[in-house]
C-alpha cells in the first residue's frame, strides 16, 4: 500500500486500515503471523512507532493478538459491514455525571450507541481529578474498544494517561475542550460562541460590554474571548478593561458561586457594564442572581448572555439568553468518531460544530437598527 504523508488521516490509521482490508479480503489469513514490526515499517515506509500504534489499535479491538517473544497474529476477521464487531463496547469517562452540560452530552452519546447496537459504560469519580487515570485504566482493563473522555480539569491539555492512549493508538475522543492539533476532539466553535453572544449584545444597543472568563489567559477563556473581541472590533465598540472579569473559584461545581461573586462586585461599581457575556450558563445564572438581589434590573440595567443552554437557563428568575452548544450532535458525533477510529478509518481530528444563539428575556429585544456611529462613542 502507498502511504500518503500528506493525507489528513494519521499514518498509523492508514496502516491499520490497510491491514484490516488485507485481513478482510483474505490476503492475510486468520491465524497467520504478521511480518516483524521492523519489516512492516520498511514495507509501509513509516517509523516503528507508527507501526506500534497501528497494531496496538487492532490488538485492542481483538483483530490481532500478540504473543510475547513470538510475534503478532491475526485473531479475528473484521466485520465486512461496518468493520466493528457487534460486541464492541465504549467507555465514557466523566468526573461528574451530575454536570448540567456534560450529562446532556453523555445522554446523547448513550442514545447514539444504543441506536447502533453498541454498549456504552459510564464512569464518574465524584469530582476527584486524581481519579481520571484510574477511570481510564479501569476501562482499558475491562477491555473496552474505545473511550469518550470529559476532562473537567481546566488546564485544557491532555493528561499523561490520555497522552499514553494517544501514543499507543488507542481509539478515543475528547468532548471537553482540549488543546492540541493532534488531539481527537468533538465540540463547538468556542470563538464563534463569543462572537454570537457579543454581537447580540451590540445589536440590542449595549456599548459597555463586559466578559467573564473562567480564568484570564486560559485557552478556553481566550477562545471565547477572541470572539468577544472580534465582535467589538467589527462594530467599532471600545473594549473597557474594567469590565473583564474571571471566576474567583476553581471547578465547574463552583461556577454559580463564582458568577454570584462577580455579580456582587459589579453591583458596587460606580460605572457598570450594560451588557455582559459570561463563560457559561452556571456562571451567568449566578451573576444574574447577584444583580437581581442587589436591585439591579436584568436586562434594563445590565443584559446577560451565557453559554451552553442547560435546562436551568430557560427556568431562571429572568430566563437566560445563551449560546447553545449542540449536545445531541456532540454526543452522537463522538460515538461515530470513536467507532470509525476503531475501524481504522480516517477521521477529522478536530470536529468543530456550529453554535446557535437562543434569545430570552435576559437581553430583551430591540427592533431598532444599529447606530454604528453612536456605538463608536466611548
Count of alpha/pi helices: 12
Q: Identify the strand order in the major beta sheet.
A: 9-8-10-11-12-14
Structural class: alpha/beta
CATH architecture of the largest domain: 3-Layer(aba) Sandwich
Strand fraction equals 15-25%
CATH class of the largest domain: Alpha Beta
Helix content: 25-40%
Mean residue pLDDT: 86
What is the third-level CATH name, the topology of the largest domain?
A: Rossmann fold
Walk me through this protein's architecture.
With 378 residues, this protein is α/β, with parallel strands linked by helices. It has helices at residues 11-24, 37-44, 48-61, 102-116, 132-142, 160-167, 190-203, 219-234, 255-267, 281-293, 327-343, 372-375; strands at 64-67, 71-74, 89-94, 119-123, 146-150, 172-174, 185-188, 209-213, 244-246, 275-278, 303-308, 321-324, 350-353, 356-358. The strands form four sheets. It has a six-stranded mixed β-sheet with strand order 9-8-10-11-12-14, sandwiched between helices. Strands 4-3-5-6 form a four-stranded parallel β-sheet, sandwiched between helices. A two-stranded antiparallel sheet has the order 1-2. α2 (37-44) crosses α3 (48-61). The longest helix has 17 residues, at 327-343. The radius of gyration is 24 Å and the shape is elongated.
Brief account:
With 378 residues, this protein is of the alpha/beta class.
Keyphrases for this structure?
378 residues, alpha/beta, Rossmann fold, 3 domains
What topology emerges from the helices and strands here?
Elements: H1 11-24, H2 37-44, H3 48-61, E1 64-67, E2 71-74, E3 89-94, H4 102-116, E4 119-123, H5 132-142, E5 146-150, H6 160-167, E6 172-174, E7 185-188, H7 190-203, E8 209-213, H8 219-234, E9 244-246, H9 255-267, E10 275-278, H10 281-293, E11 303-308, E12 321-324, H11 327-343, E13 350-353, E14 356-358, H12 372-375
Parallel strand pairs: 3-4, 3-5, 5-6, 7-13, 8-9, 8-10, 10-11, 11-12
Antiparallel strand pairs: 1-2, 12-14
Amino acid at each position: 500500500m502507498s502511504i500518503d504523508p500528506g493525507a489528513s488521516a494519521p499514518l498509523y490509521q492508514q496502516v491499520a486500515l490497510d491491514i484490516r482490508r488485507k485481513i478482510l479480503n483474505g490476503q492475510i489469513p486468520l491465524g497467520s503471523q504478521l511480518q516483524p514490526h521492523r519489516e512492516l515499517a520498511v514495507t509501509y515506509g513509516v517509523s516503528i512507532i507508527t507501526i506500534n500504534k497501528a497494531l496496538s489499535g487492532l490488538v485492542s479491538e481483538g483483530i490481532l493478538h500478540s504473543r510475547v517473544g513470538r510475534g503478532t497474529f491475526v485473531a479475528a476477521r473484521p466485520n465486512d459491514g461496518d468493520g466493528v464487531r457487534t460486541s464492541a463496547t465504549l467507555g465514557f469517562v466523566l468526573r461528574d455525571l451530575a454536570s448540567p452540560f456534560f450529562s446532556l452530552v453523555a445522554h446523547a452519546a448513550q442514545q447514539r450507541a444504543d441506536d447502533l447496537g453498541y454498549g456504552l459504560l459510564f464512569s464518574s469519580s465524584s469530582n476527584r481529578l486524581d481519579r481520571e487515570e484510574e477511570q481510564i485504566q479501569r476501562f482499558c482493563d475491562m477491555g473496552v474498544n474505545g473511550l469518550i473522555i470529559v476532562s473537567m480539569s481546566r488546564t485544557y491539555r491532555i493528561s499523561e494517561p490520555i497522552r499514553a492512549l494517544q501514543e499507543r493508538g488507542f481509539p478515543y475522543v475528547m468532548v471537553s475542550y482540549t488543546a492540541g492539533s493532534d488531539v481527537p476532539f468533538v465540540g463547538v466553535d468556542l470563538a464563534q460562541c463569543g462572537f454570537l453572544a457579543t454581537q447580540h449584545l451590540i445589536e440590542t444597543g449595549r456599548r459597555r460590554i463586559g466578559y467573564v472568563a473562567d480564568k484570564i489567559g486560559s485557552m478556553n477563556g481566550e477562545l471565547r474571548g477572541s470572539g468577544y473581541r472580534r465582535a467589538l472590533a467589527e462594530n467599532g465598540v471600545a473594549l473597557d478593561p474594567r469590565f473583564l472579569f474571571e471566576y474567583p473559584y476553581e471547578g465547574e461545581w463552583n461556577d454559580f458561586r463564582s458568577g454570584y461573586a462577580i455579580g456582587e462586585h459589579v453591583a458596587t461599581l460606580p460605572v457598570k457594564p450594560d451588557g455582559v457575556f459570561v463563560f457559561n450558563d452556571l456562571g451567568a445564572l449566578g451573576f444574574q442572581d447577584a444583580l437581581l438581589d442587589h436591585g439591579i434590573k436584568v436586562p434594563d440595567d445590565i443584559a446577560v448572555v451565557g453559554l451552553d443552554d442547560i435546562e436551568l437557563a430557560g427556568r431562571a428568575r429572568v430566563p437566560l439568553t445563551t449560546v447553545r452548544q449542540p449536545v445531541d450532535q456532540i454526543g452522537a458525533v463522538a460515538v461515530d468518531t470513536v467507532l470509525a477510529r476503531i475501524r481504522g478509518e480516517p477521521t477529522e481530528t478536530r470536529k468543530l460544530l456550529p453554535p446557535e444563539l437562543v434569545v430570552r428575556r435576559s437581553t430583551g429585544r430591540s427592533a431598532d437598527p444599529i447606530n454604528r456611529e453612536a456605538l463608536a462613542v466611548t
